[in-house]
Amino acid sequence: MATHPTPPEPRAAVAGWEPPASRTRLGVLLLLCSMAFILYLDRVCVSQALRSIQLELDLSDTESSYVLMAFTLAYGLFEVPTGHWGDRYGSRRILTRIVVWWSIFTALTAACFGFTSLVIVRFLFGAGEAGAYPNAARVIARWFPTAERGRVQGIFQAASLVGGALAPAVAGLLITTEAMIADRPEKTAASTSGGDDGEF
Prior knowledge:
Blueprint: H1 24-48, H2 50-57, H3 61-89, H4 91-110, H5 115-129, H6 132-143, H7 146-196
């Protein structure tokens, strides 16, 4: 039976090895902080829009709670496996997959037509978004010297908390703006129709 050679030990796991201090690591930190902010934003958007979703899809409060639970349940179930995939395949690949996945499922959420489809999409959304934090920790370990990691982890966690604080307001603004844009053609058409009838 053929045996596969053991892959070489990652440099970060070699005793005494320290990643070189380069300016590139600051760009890496900026990308990680941006990701942490967006992670909270796309979670909160559904909660902010839940009332409108309930009315459009005719969902009860119980069904809406299942929709919210589906994401959190999947996120918890897949957090450890996705962290392991980062160890096996590399954090860069996994984080790229996570960003692409959540982008696709953000769009698919708008395409849902009922309770079942919404629960399925939200569950897959949570499954795909899981593992971002474990893999971000691996990136920090590989890009930053030991003396900087505590500070960098603090900055990354602060970005997450700031995202959690600002996400409801940002999500509400985005939803309100989108609703205004969506209603504008209807109002324009109604105004034109009214003008033809001689009404003001």
